[in-house]
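Tip: read the tokens left to right.
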């Protein structure tokens, strides 16, 4: 009789434990898709996403080629906390290019920032994207032909653009006004050096 009593107590304890375990997992179900999404969110960084104001009048053409930026503002040259952000699982980018006026005489430059995977609507070529994503924990800037990146032509004078890539939260925050001024100064210095050398050779 005593053995039957103990057996009943053990069975009731097991049933209670099983019921409590079942209730806990019913109220807190595990969804593999949600877990995967949370993991991807943790792996993503964030990039500044903006374009200088000069792109806005051209966007009716560019919208067929590029993802829209979060902001059109000249603060994009020197981004701050008010500039838009996008989550990014690839590298961040900064693009600076010459944009000619309608008469192809006035010269101006524009800057775009964003996530590499959200630059072109139809994506970069795999080999180009792999090269641009290859550098970790550093910012790499290149003067390259826009045709290699399949960028929309905005200058009849040059196909050369400055394209910077980096990986990490808000890494595409570099002051591109300073970069542009430095590049122009270097170009002017080379022109003066060339002219000086040419004059010395003549005389």
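Filled-in amino acids:
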């Amino acid at each position: 009789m005593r053995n039957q009593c103990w057996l009943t107590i053990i069975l009731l304890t097991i049933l209670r434990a099983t019921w409590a375990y079942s209730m806990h997992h019913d109220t807190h179900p595990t969804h593999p898709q949600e877990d995967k999404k949370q993991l991807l969110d943790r792996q993503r960084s964030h990039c500044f996403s903006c374009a200088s104001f000069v792109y806005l009048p051209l966007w009716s053409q560019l919208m067929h080629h590029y993802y829209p930026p979060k902001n059109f503002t000249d603060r994009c040259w020197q981004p701050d906390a008010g500039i838009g952000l996008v989550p990014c699982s690839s590298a961040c980018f900064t693009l600076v290019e010459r944009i000619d006026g309608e008469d192809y005489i006035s010269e101006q430059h524009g800057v775009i920032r964003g996530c590499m995977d959200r630059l072109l609507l139809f994506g970069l070529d795999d080999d180009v994207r792999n090269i641009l994503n290859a550098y970790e924990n550093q910012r790499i800037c290149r003067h390259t032909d826009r045709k290699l990146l399949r960028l929309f032509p905005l200058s009849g004078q040059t196909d050369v653009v400055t394209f910077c890539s980096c990986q990490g939260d808000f890494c595409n925050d570099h002051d591109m006004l300073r970069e542009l001024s430095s590049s122009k100064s270097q170009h002017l210095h080379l022109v003066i050096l060339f002219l000086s050398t040419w004059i010395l050779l003549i005389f």
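The two ends are 125 Å apart (CA to CA). The chain has six helices and seven strands.
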